[in-house]
Amino acid sequence: MPLHTTFHPLAIGRLGLRNNLIAAPLAGLSSLPYRVLAMECGCALAISEMVSAEGAIRAHDRTRRYFANDERVRPFGVQLFGSDPASIAAAIRSIEGEPIDLIDINMGCPVKKVVSKGAGAALMRTPKRAAEIIRNARAATDLTLTVKIRSGWDDASINCAEMARIAEDCGANAVSVHPRTRMQEFRGKSDWRLIAEVKSSVRIPVIGNGDVHTRDDALRMFAQTGCDGIMIGRAAVGNPWIFAQVLGTMDSEPSTDERGKAAARHLDLLCGFMGEHLAVLNMRAILPWYGKGLHGVHRFMQKCNGIATAAELSHEIRRFFLTHE
Ligand SMILES: Cc1cc2nc3c(=O)[nH]c(=O)nc-3n(C[C@H](O)[C@H](O)[C@H](O)COP(=O)(O)O)c2cc1C
Question: Is the CB of 210 under 6 A from ligand 1?
Fold first, then answer.
């Protein structure tokens, strides 16, 4: 099937993407194995989960894992969060030389622990600091630089268009917009009209994000907002096929067999990546997404949560999915 004309190669700064679908940063979920599966299904760029700037500078094993990458996932973006412009710049310099193509700055995380330190979505309330962070990041690297924002802090302070202009003025190459406020967290619907507003406010590419679950959703987002690319988060967890479906290269739903095989492979990749113990724990968080909507998934998960070895978990995954009616 040919690519729909809505889907096209996209240049972000000097980085050329084969199409305009991006796998969103997802804390606890979007490590290398997740990104490998997403890339195989057609997304053009995958972003790491958020990494604290201070953590990246210290680069303990655990933090390194967040941005560890290899040639299977290129291009690849690392997302940093922090509130100190100098730390963000130092973090960028400290990860130079890794297989990384893009730096994304998080200005959308709503979590209390993050915003209470002035990072994530708190930066929507401190545009001057946000500007300083972006300028420092720009000066620290020649890599493509993007910023991920929300619509604003709360309903009374919607400022995504202003923030996007700041990002552009300070040297960002693109901005992605998840049009919910910090106070909304993940409740309600994302307001795509704000993506259109951002698009008409800047010249750099605008990536729309929020509530794209199907190809139709993606086509509507392009049509309603004029955005240049789309970022998909939750709909891709346990469902890497969403990228092929949205692109129009796959026009069916994956069978339960395929879901089971992909889940087992995800577990295998996690084992190779973080060792068996952590892989089994991480897979407990990921598996419900693979089993979404399937009869008996609750009981299946109860069983999986009591399993400590990858061999047993893999066996249980195959048993559940491959014999599922
Ligand atoms: C479990 C989870 C973890 C997330 N982690 C991050 C993150 O690390 N950085 C970030 O910018 N956004 C993060 N997000 C937000 C997503 O990237 C995305 O903006 C949001 O889910 C809306 O897109 P969607 O409707 O396609 O999921 C997270 C969302 C979820 C559900």
Answer: yes
Burial class (CB in 10 A: 0-12, 13-18, 19+), 188: exposed
CA–CA separation, 236 and 243 (whole Å): 8
Neighbours of 112 (CB within 10 A): 9
Q: Answer whether 0.85 is exceeded by the pTM.
A: yes
Contacts of 77 (CB under 8 A, 6+ apart): 45, 46, 47, 48, 100, 101, 102, 103, 104, 144, 146
| Bridge partners for 45 per DSSP | 22
For residue 109, indicate whether it is catalytic.
yes
| Domains in the chain with CATH codes | 10-247 (3.20.20.70), 256-322 (1.10.1200.80)
Q: What is the pLDDT of residues 13-28, one digit of tens each?
A: 999 999 999 999 999 9
**pLDDT band for position 4 (50/70/90)?**
low
Pairwise CA distance, residues 256 & 253, whole Å: 9
Is 317:264 a contact under the CB 8 Å cutoff? yes
CA distance 235 to 240: 8
Which residue among 22, 26, 149 has the greatest number of ligand 1 atoms within 8 angstroms of its CB, and so is best to mutate?
26
